[in-house]
């Protein structure tokens, strides 16, 4: 586990808008410990908006519309998580310098210890997420000019901000020495150390059962577990300690929102946009199911608002896709159209043709038992977080407190 100094420093930076171009959004704005490491909506408004979760709305600056559902952060610091993001664009790769592959123009400049630390670099230079739009601040201008790396690049500008704040500089002195300038990878590493500590979810009733406590799961949960690893065959993709195979699958989740610009009708081609392989069309990374009962909505687009509806989609994905009417909380505070892909017959047909999971028949009683089992994967500490937010920030900027914890 990371040391206390690094974790507490990472906590402050995680909640501090100082890491965004316009100093108006933090990591915690979209990844709140009080909302299961995410933001409780299908798709959120990014840089330029104000507020948290379902209360988020357009602010003084034009609010960016985020194309994919905010993934939760639970257990991403575990060693087995070597591929991150819905499309896997951050991954361990021994053939690359420092062992982790990032998108072009965002290569690691120094070593980091995990895929999570490498991934932490990316939102800070994403215009819609934290950097901002060209003309609004020097970081955004550097990103727009493809100057992310190197001297006076976007990462360097952000690192110098932190270096110039005495309270942050002193704490980095304890970690890297007083003579070493703060580098963006130092920031990414302490952010990852905080996330690893804060979002660890390994003490659920299911874990207690695995440790030998036969009373940890009731009869319905045990029946759901039997279905999960048996008849329902959820384990085909949701395997291992964290219920994920870390692979990519096309399961036909409805495409809602602005898409990623991969084609007509607000399309999102998923993994194929990274690999260039047609066989990866509409494939997305298998999510871990730890704390899944807390982390609604579901799917890469957040299309399904409940576990029940997401399970039913898995049972007959093609029919579910074809009949989707929209149930998600989309872009609070805006009435922008979000169903362009679902209104395009050819695009829906393309998504359906790529589905690679079989249909399965389960009874209503089976579905109810599965949901009870999935609830047994909840770590109680995860409902509020281990440390939570700091009282104040070294930058002096206001703190996003996050949504109200679930009842």
Describe the structure.
It is a single chain. The chain is mostly helical and 407 residues long. The protein folds into two domains: 4-37 and 72-200, Cytochrome c-like domain (Cytochrome Bc1 Complex, Chain D, domain 2), CATH 1.10.760.10; 212-375, Cytochrome c-like domain (Cytochrome Bc1 Complex, Chain D, domain 2), CATH 1.10.760. The protein contains 15 helices and seven strands. The strands form three sheets. It has a three-stranded antiparallel sheet with strand order 3-4-5. Strands 1-2 form a two-stranded antiparallel ribbon. A two-stranded antiparallel ribbon has the order 6-7. Strand 1 and strand 2 form a beta hairpin. Helix 10 crosses helix 15. The longest helix is centred in the middle third of the chain and has 15 residues, at 184-198. Residues 402-407 have low confidence and may be disordered.
